[in-house]
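[job 0412] stage=fold_complex status=start
inputs:
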Amino acid sequence: MRPVWVAGVGIHAFGRFADRTVTQLGAHAVRAALAEAGVGRGGFQAAFCGTVYGGVAAGHKVLTGLGLSSVPIVNVEAGCASGGAALALGAAQIASGRYDTVLVFGMEKMPRGIIRSSFFEPWREEAGLAATPAYFALRAQRLMQESGVTLDDLAAVSEKNHRHGVDNPYAMYRKALSRDEILASPVVCAPLRLLMLCAPNEGAAAVVLSARPAGPRPVRVAAAALRSHPAGSVLGEHTPMSGLAADAAPTPTELAARDAYETAALGPEDLDVVELQDTDSGREILSAEELGLCPRGGGGDWVRGGGGEMTSSLPVNPSGGLLSKGEPLGASALGQVVHLVWQLRGTAGARQVPDASVALAHTVGRGANACVVILTA
Amino acid sequence: MSASGAATRPITDGLFTDGPDGPRLIAGRCAACGGLHFPRGPVCPYCAADGCEERLVGPAGRLWLYTAVGSRPPGYRGPVPYGFGIVELDGGLRVVTRLTEPRLDRLRPGQPMRLVLEALHTDDDGRAVVSYAFRPEAP
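[job 0412] stage=fold_complex status=done
writing structure:
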């Protein structure tokens, strides 16, 4: 297999943009990534577009508008991991030798409020059993029962990520919040408060992949692993109606992490910086456990020991995470990758982790889908 | 309350029954691996074997995890706040369920729970829409 390199990245800020269509958001990110890579019409051989709510042939509309169609264009939907799925598919084309340059992008314009999803049967919505934040709350409560996580730990994660987000010009929320403010915000589903949950929003991100290294400090895609869930856990991101108490099946994040670490011949101890799924504060802690950043059941100790802080040995979500950026489903995974490419190039500005050379990006969600990407420089 | 009668309808078919002994959930049991799943489907989600048989489960269970939902999620027309949680039944089946008790200080992990049927709202044809829930047993 050939190595896969990042030739260029581009992003449209995450937020709310009433005057722009999803096609315009995508085009903005695509143009930026292609310009940085020095790639124009005829310069890439395939495109993969991640989106969930983008509609029919969403990626085709972006490239048609830019005069860049005629190459194969594949639209990819894999829930919160859609952009990661697009990246995994694009990287495989280059690794296999089929193509030399591939465009990967993701974009979204999310409905407001609790996300309505065609994923759920109508009766389940009618019964009140499709309340997404309630599932987040049950996972957080389990962390409190089994991982020694406290309500204050949940506030600490949100406080950290919002503090990080202040320095990210592409984030939706750039205001530091105190733990007291977070704890005093309205209870959505106990134990989760409003300021412990990320907001669905809008944005786009794009990455040009190449068979050739580029730039003074080339970034390599060392692994891009996508997995779904094995059945068994009632708390799984596939949000089943039932599961088994004796469940011992690994989670999709554990499976994707295992695949990615093996492919890259690296482990959690080799990482310098991580962007992981923090749809809510509890999710960050669960992700840290599942990715092996701390022991299973050690999430509470991890937070109280400064886990993920910029001053720690492994900063987590220096971009501010989804809690600061918001979550445009199709764009969120590639948004992480764009931020991590800047980290590895040493161009992340005030958010820079010193001497970062190994980075991990993680998304997980509806499907279930989990994607783990490892980048090296 | 009863789920039978002309003025009610189950929220969907195949979730629960209501007989002289009270309500039961309609689960599936895999003849190959023995695993239980709910709602019942023809294929075992754990081992992919065909031919799962019906197994009625409940009414007793123990509360595992719980929260309360304070504002109506999309598609829901019933009362708020309402309890939401996971109850563990005999045989090791964990089921996602409404809870009749939304006051979390009245719930605790491991608490004995009992299956009930409750009306959520009245549909456009004037029928009470009935779903299953678990309520705390008297201490």
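[job 0412] summary: Residues 8-134 of chain B form one domain.
[job 0412] exit 0
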